[in-house]
UniProtKB/TrEMBL annotation:
Annotated compartments: Cell projection, Cilium
Region Disordered, residue ranges: 249-268
Annotated catalytic residues: H118
Entries under PANTHER family matching the protein: NUCLEOSIDE DIPHOSPHATE KINASE, NUCLEOSIDE DIPHOSPHATE KINASE DDB_G0292928-RELATED
Lineage of source species: Eukaryota, Viridiplantae, Chlorophyta, Pyramimonadophyceae, Pyramimonadales
Name of the featured protein: 50S ribosomal protein L3
GO MF annotation list: ATP binding; hydrolase activity; nucleoside diphosphate kinase activity
Predominant subcellular localization, coarse grouping: other
Length: 296
């Protein structure tokens, strides 16, 4: 997949055409890798168009390009350079209006200078112009569709499914934004690529929630496996997360209304759900240990 540099010029930005141009390039199959709204100084504009220095239009072009903000873009697509230049149309907007009226310059440009947009004409110029506006951008190749699909299935879907399952169990409210916010916080807290720091008080359980003694009969105690310990810790975290959310919601309600603590059916159900989820985790671990004793 090829990358190219594109720019929406001051005339199109000041007229508000940049919204239409951005929409059209996305409809044209271009992916926006980077975008920046920039006000060029005259010196920076002169540096960018240095290859045209000495030509009759150079001074006018530099004045124009420093007259207002531009939108600099890094675009990606198969054959992105030729694709973007085709979408822009002929350099002179007068010609574009006659020959390619549906092109960007045909619709939004005025003449050869005030022509709405700019695009790199070769891989070398694309690399130079991208570096000019985005010096810190690393131009790694974009993954092909098959690779991207595999990555999503292997690395994104498992975590997302866990988060959506937790959301369904929690049911924060009927408000869509609250549900989205809850899921966003859950994904941040459970990012598998980042170690999670858990406060000590989050791991503490109420006395009544401590695991009941498990009688293994004459077989004696069975040492927990790593998997079982991880499940137990996960159960604790799930429960503490539920209770933390409930506590924050109670605090918010107290701030907004009279300072009267009311235990609603919904709050009681949330508390029961938290305990039940932990019990399910631990019950599963207990059944596994019993099965191990019977088959051992």
């Amino acid at each position: 997949m090829q990358k190219t540099f594109a720019m929406i010029k001051p005339d199109a930005v000041s007229a508000g055409y940049h919204h239409n141009i951005l929409q059209e390039l996305e409809l044209g199959g271009f992916a926006i890798v980077s975008k920046a709204r920039v006000q060029l100084t005259r010196a920076r504009a002169a540096e960018f168009y240095a290859e045209h220095k000495g030509k009759h239009f150079y001074e006018k072009l530099v004045d124009f390009m420093s007259s207002g903000p531009v939108i600099a873009l890094v675009l990606a697509k198969e054959e992105a350079i030729t694709g973007w230049r085709t979408l822009m149309g002929p350099t002179n907007s007068v010609v574009a209006k006659e020959q390619k009226p549906d092109s960007l310059r045909g619709k939004y440009g005025t003449d050869g200078t005030y022509n709405a947009c700019h695009g790199a004409d070769s891989p070398a110029s694309a690399a130079r112009e991208i570096k000019f506006f985005f010096p810190r951008l690393i131009l790694d190749p974009l993954p092909d569709p098959a690779t991207a699909k595999t990555f999503i299935i292997d690395h994104l879907q498992p975590t997302l499914v866990k988060g959506l399952t937790a959301l369904c169990k929690q049911k924060p409210s009927a408000d869509k934004m609250e549900a989205i916010t809850w899921l966003a916080h859950w994904l941040l807290d459970n990012n598998p690529n980042k170690p999670r720091t858990v406060d000590h008080d989050q791991l503490e359980l109420k006395p009544e929630d401590e695991e009941e003694g498990f009688d293994l009969g004459e077989g004696g105690q069975v040492e927990k496996s790593v998997e079982e310990m991880e499940q137990d810790l996960a159960a604790t975290r799930v429960q503490s997360h539920f209770r933390g959310y409930q506590a924050r919601r109670n605090v918010q309600k107290k701030k907004e209304g009279p300072k009267v603590s009311i235990q609603t059916h919904e709050m009681a159900d949330d508390e029961k759900s938290a305990v039940k989820i932990q019990a399910l985790y631990r019950g599963h671990a207990g059944r596994k240990r019993v099965k191990g004793l019977k088959t051992g």
